[in-house]
Amino acid sequence: MRLFISIDVPKEFHRYCQQLQDQFPDIRKTNEFHLTLQFLGDDIEDAEPIIETLKTIKFEQFELEMGDALPFPNPFQPRGIWIECKKTDALEKLANDIREALEPLGFIPDKPFKAHITLGRFRKPPHKKPEKIEGEQHKFTVNHFNLMESMLSPIGPKYKRIIKINY
Questions:
Q1: Stated pTM of the model
Q2: Could you tell me which of 44, 143, 42, 34 has the C-alpha nearest to residue 94?
Q3: Contact 65, 87 (CB under 8 A)
Q4: Domains of the chain
Q5: Following CA atoms 69, 74, 111, 135 in sequence, which dihedral angle do they give, to the nearest 10 degrees?
Q6: How many CB atoms sit inside 10 A of residue 149's CB?
């Protein structure tokens, strides 16, 4: 299984995400918006130890603020477009608590946590350098996170929730 841990973007913000996507015609768009807290891997055979570990994580609900849309990993060689999310102590704590809890199971992050919501990826390098688009202020309450399975296909990934962990 290909697994990751994420925060859902509420449906009422999907239209805003789609409006930002429309500013970047060269991307292969996603319709399933989420903030990835940690990618776990492509070849996980047993999710049960992960599920049991995630159930032990305690957190308070908090506000998440979406920011600007910009190319990643950098504007000179972009692979996609994402919405930056404002770092907050609560978001950082949740991400760190998840990472620390899963480390004994062998899940060591290969990169630092960067709060973002992916809007889409480029199929091939864009003809012109994509510019940052200043986002409107949008906030939503985070009161759960998910363990998700990602199934890759030629038209893009499909996601299935394995478990929802409430605050």
A1: 0.91
A2: 143
A3: no
A4: 3-166 (3.90.1140.10)
A5: -10
A6: 17
